[in-house]
Each structure stands twice: as structure tokens, then as C-alpha cells.
Amino acid sequence: MGDKLRFNRYQGISRCWLDLFSEPYTQIRRVNDFTVIEFHGEIDLVADLWVRAHVDAATDTDQPRIVVDLRTATFIDCSTLRILCHARKRALDNGGGMGLVCTLPRHLGILKAVRLTGVLGPVATLEEAYASALRGA
Question: pTM of the entire structure?
């Protein structure tokens, strides 16, 4: 679909530390005008530093259009919610938008429990998420 991107922005974190935890958590690729960030495995406090550095790099442009895909995340917690809110805010602050693909009932239940479904607008497909990102959601 698109090229994988690697970001070298580590926000002062030791490269050695990130290398220990990098690959299981994110896969990033460009699809047309969108940066798709797939979350993999357990996205918790341990993964937070790595994932947030990638989100920051993806949203550090004019009018970033990002799509976060949670379909392959096996676990999310409050750290994940913070990352999602941070990603949306950065995208909007820079004139872009964010779409969120989320289909697992347990993840949707967490978003609903903390009343973030209306803010983050989870959808079932990448195409719907692209449309959300274009709307500046």
C-alpha cells in the first residue's frame, strides 16, 4: 500500500532504550496524503515513549493527516488514550486531522466508558478514517 516510514525523533530518550521496544508497537506507512500508524500488541506505559515519539514525528508537519489503526492492538489502557488525544490535538493544532480505526469491542468499550467516542470518532475501516482525517476531525 505505501512505504514504511522510520522516524528518528526520540525526545531525549536513549536510543538503546527505544531499540529494545520499537518493533512490536508501531508500523508506520504513507498512503497517498495520509500517515497511517498501526498500533501492535500491548500499547501501555512501556510502549508510550516509543509510540508518542512516532506520533509527534507524524504530526510535526503542516496539515498532517494521520490515521491511527488499533485493529492489531491487543491491549490498550489510559496511556493509549493519552496518546490518541495527544495525536488528535497535534494534528488539529497543525491544521490537519486524525482518523481512528477501532473495531474490537473491548477497545470500543473503553473509549465509550471514558466518553471519548464522540471526540475520537472511531470507525471500522481505513476508508472511513481517511474521510475523518480529511474533515479535520
Answer: 0.81
